[in-house]
Amino acid sequence: MAQRPGFPIKFSTQEKVAPAKAPAKKTASTNPQGLGLDSSAVRQRMVQKLAAQGLKDPRVLQAMGAVERHRFVESALVNQAYEDTSLPIGLGQTISKPNVVARMIELLLEGADGKLGRVLEIGTGCGYQAAVLSHVATEVYSIERLKGLHEKARSNLRHFRLANVHLLFGDGMLGYPKGAPYAAIISAAGGETLPQAWLDQLAVGGRLVAPTVTATGQQALMVVDKTDQGFKQSVLEAVHFVPLKSGIS
Ligand code: SAH
After folding, report:
1. Is residue 19 part of a domain?
2. How far is the CA of 37 from the centre of ligand 1 (A)?
3. Distance from CA of residue 65 to its chain's centroid?
């Protein structure tokens, strides 16, 4: 039986070294290549851990097992790519913990059959969550206000050739009216209140999941369902997301 890698795995030096014959492949991305087989086993360990933490939706577990998170982090952090931790992605921003990504997407899918339709993500960051979303939705519109990260996400995602992910540079507080109405809206940045544009652009029957500051001044996950009768809002667990900011930079 093949030996299972430990958790967290330390990728061997051998795997980190790019083959001498293929320097032309090292273009825009500095992410290490060739971790495929081993990283798949490590991802399965991550998925088992997510399941043990209570995540149940097979669509989410499948997506989390499929997306190579190590391709979205700096090479110095690759060994931590499958740990349940948030990691810096540059410009003072962070990629969320796998558990939080999975939890939010599970909330988006709750009560929905099969795949979601069009989804809007606010805060593309490095593009990891957009890649996970691409497995559970027909179309993903992901918007980022920092040009540097928008470009980084584009470069990170190129490898995956995800035809259903549309990266947008702009202020996500305004949503993206051209893609509306959305079956789901998910924010990776937390504001003081929920922008009206998000509520407007949510489809009836759709769901919004976003970290937002609550009455106690703490950030918590907010779930909003848009129904024929209006909005239904629930406040869930406390979370720690980077701030939602207006404008572009
Ligand atoms: N989903 C991302 C997480 C990135 S962190 C990932 O998988 O990497 C949250 C991101 O939200 C940051 O990149 C930040 O720049 C961005 N952000 C904050 N306010 C925003 C706004 N108004 N519009 C778009 N992006 C915003």
Report:
1. no
2. 30
3. 13
**C-alpha angle 150/164/191, rounded to 5°?**
45
Instruction: Tell me whether residue 27 is in a domain.
Output: no
179 located within any domain: yes
β-pairing, 182-187 with 202-213?
parallel
Q: Structurally, how many domains does the chain consist of?
A: 1
Tens of pLDDT, residues 52-99: 999 999 999 999 999 999 999 999 999 999 999 999 999 999 999 999
What DSSP element (H or E) covers 221?
strand 219-227
Q: Is 176 a member of any domain? A: yes
Specify the ligand 1 atom closest to the Cα of 174. 22
pTM over 0.90? The answer is: no
CATH number, domain with residue 221: 3.40.50.150
Instruction: Return the structure tokens found at 248.
Output: 């572009």
